[in-house]
Amino acid sequence: MSPRSPCPGFSSPCVGSGTCTKSSSPNTNTAKRPGATGQMTALTACRQSSRCWQRCLSWPGLAPQPLQHGSPPHIPAVPSARGLASTATATIRFSPSTRSLFDEPLGIAVQGLGPRQQVTLRASLRDEAGELFEAHARYQAADDGELDLARCPALPGGSFSGLEPTGLLWALQPRKAFWRLVKKDVTTPFRLQLDVLDGHGDGPGRLLAQAQHERAFLRDGVRRVPVRDGRIRATLFLPPGQGPFPGVINMEGLGGGLCEHKASLLANHGFATLALAYYHFEDLVQKPTKLHLEYFEEAVNYMLQHTQVKGPGIGLLGFSKGGDLSLAMAAFLKNITAVATINSPVGNSAFPLCYKDKMIPPLICEEKYAKVYNNNIIDYSDAMCDPFKAPGNQSLIPIEKAEAHLLFIAGQDDHIVKSKYHATETYKYLQAQGKQNVQTLICPGAGHCIDPPFSPFYPIGNHPVFRKRAVLGGELTAYSKAQVRAWLQIQAFFHKHLNDK
């Protein structure tokens, strides 16, 4: 776009800063629905505000509209290319051109449109199960026929509106209800397809241009090393270049198995990262009745003895159940320097946790305190016992014993764990004991799942304990911002505390 070409709908031209001044603010008011229950579907959940789980929205003019789910048309005369595609009238340009990391922003521009031409941009990708994710947004080109998403706003009527340069990434939603995008094979990229369609009609307009771009999980030179050492079942990711590197162990929640997407992305930023499975994987126990901290101690020792891992301590990154395991490791094990948790309780959850002659019972979860919405979707916000008020605090992890630096990341609208409460109460609890090793990051509008940047919003899923469809929480736009903020904070935290002074 020419530096002085105005973005339609804005009162000032796009100047060198790449920003525009909007002439009016979007209407974000919502209407309450009478009654105590809410109409819950995959699409309505994604468009509800963080405090409206029991309301049904009356959609305002600038709110996202339902996605168009027609199959993308195949027009043989329109060529497609990785990073660049053109027709007689339009060209798509990505930055980077053909391949980017999944957690990095992607620049998108369209050239060769008519002056102030109205177009719809549609992004789509399929996961490894073949499920389709889609987002679309409406735009109007500048006077010179160029459309730069970093300078021009999305207009009302799409999956999002306003100046959101990466909106077509984080607004992707599954065609199949309640489906989550999780990369299984991190050695292969997701392939993002972008279509430019003429007009703003309800149905797909004429295809003007089409391009594909790879969203990768491994930077060139990152090494993926399967680990089968003693009892340990894991994958180690080593950054490119000469080590040793600061080491981090990543543990996920109660879904079980081996999840590599966070660990692989973290390795791109200079960390030797071990994605650790702890049940329901290969010859590990499939349905545990208890967990033993000695297994996790073995993983710590493996990292400390590795020639490519910098000592004298390592970091832990845990989500949900993986978070309370990380806190227990910091309380009982040596050589843990920094622990970052995402939406985790500070009490032991799900299974008894044993270490030597000690046993921490799990927090009690009582389904009778759950609230049931339409479509049999359940809110378990009040089901988990408060670890600070349980008799004798028996399930509370003795976090005051931890010498590690602690970072609690909490979604303010988490409906699985009351993460904000757990984080703020732990902060006060440790401060009262004179501990200065804790910090919190509270994310407004974020639910239970805070994934790496540009992951699709996932507000409804399966409860990790009750295995029923459950409200996870969150609001689309706030979630997208929380992803970026949390991911950058995690990297800065580990760089600060795991690298030499």
Strand order, sheet with most strands: 11-12-14-13-16-17-22-23
Question: Averaged pLDDT, please?
Answer: 85
Strand content: 25-35%
Largest sheet composition: 8 strands, mixed
Share of helix among residues?
A: 10-25%
- Work out the helix count: 7
Low-pLDDT runs of 5+ residues are 1-6, 8-88
Overall shape: it is: globular
Q: Say how many strands there are.
A: 25
Radius of gyration: 24 Å
Structural class: alpha/beta
Q: Measure the end-to-end span.
A: 45 Å
Helices and strands, with pairings:
Elements: H1 42-46, E1 84-86, E2 91-95, E3 99-101, E4 107-111, E5 118-126, E6 132-140, E7 147-148, H2 167-170, E8 173-174, E9 190-198, E10 207-216, E11 223-229, E12 232-238, E13 245-251, H3 261-267, E14 272-276, E15 291-292, H4 293-305, E16 309-319, H5 321-332, E17 336-342, E18 353-355, E19 358-360, E20 371-373, E21 377-379, E22 405-411, H6 419-432, E23 438-443, E24 460-462, E25 469-471, H7 476-498
Parallel strand pairs: 3-10, 13-14, 13-16, 15-18, 16-17, 17-22, 22-23
Antiparallel strand pairs: 1-2, 2-4, 4-7, 5-6, 5-9, 6-8, 9-10, 11-12, 12-14, 18-19, 20-21, 24-25
Organism: Coturnix japonica
Region (Disordered): 1-35
Protein name: Acyl-coenzyme A thioesterase 5-like
Q: What does it look like?
A:
The protein has about 500 residues and is α/β, with parallel strands linked by helices. It is built from 7 helices and 25 strands. The strands form 6 sheets. An 8-stranded mixed beta sheet has the order 11-12-14-13-16-17-22-23, sandwiched between helices. The longest helix has 23 residues, at about 475-500. The radius of gyration is 24 Å and the shape is globular. InterPro entries: AB_hydrolase_fold, Acyl-CoA_thioEstase_long-chain, BAAT_C, Thio_Ohase/aa_AcTrfase, Thio_Ohase/BAAT_N. Belongs to the C/M/P thioester hydrolase family.
